[in-house]
User: What shape does this take?
Amino acid sequence: MDDTPSTPRSDLKPIQISERTRPGSSTRDIVFDVQKLSLHYGSTLAISEITVPIYKNHVTAFIGPSGCGKSTFIRCLNRMNDLVPIARVTGQVLYHGQDLYGPTVDPVQVRRHIGMVFQKPNPFPKSIYDNIAWGLKILGKKDNLDDRVEQALRKAALWDEVKDRLKSSGLALSGGQQQRLCIARAIAIEPDVILMDEPASALDPISTTRIEDLIHELKQDYTIAIVTHNMQQAARVADMTAFFSLDVSEGRRAGVLVEYDETTTIFTRPADKRTEDYVTGRFG
Assistant: This one.
């Protein structure tokens, strides 16, 4: 989380859940209030009119068949799609009540508050230490740098494994360790939210379990949104689950939000037949 004057934290106040149809308790704070969000790539509609809240200190999973726009959606939450020249967003993404797509909002500042971990581990070709310290230095957070690096690695459950080889290359770590290093790199700059796009899909079962355990720990301090193709993983780690599917009506093929509720409800008592068919393996 950046502490420069251009993005004062006092402007980012939580808003309360409204009386609209919302799953769960009416006392939870909303971090993201997404309203009728659509995204086009050129003339192609990728996701259509997504309306969903994402709650503070919850893990929210986005599940659904391949190509239904799950990754596209979470990339809207930190304006990563801005990097695609033909992408165009309509609708509204409120972050603590502030419109992320407002004309005065700096996307770089957005990404300092809302970090991202990608499907394939992507450590920098630098030492383990420098992988963590690099972002801190860029932001001018050079005081107590050793402590900051250690705390980030501890939070990512990696410190005990690397504390004696901090000057070794991050690329020399195992796949699971590299992914935890990327998580440590994301949390070192103190974000508010961590977005995870299939963070364990390239990992073995043991590394996957460690990432899932880490997600449980991290939600005490962060709001987490995770895209996963693994329904069992969503059931294990998520408090809330959103099911996306493809709408192929009217000559279009766009991702739509079918259902959103507490994870236990989605997997045991879904309200929509499409959700039931997907979570029971009848399609997808």
Summary: The first strand starts at residue 15 and ends at 16. The CA atoms of residues 152 and 184 lie 5 Å apart. The first helix runs from residue 70 to 76.
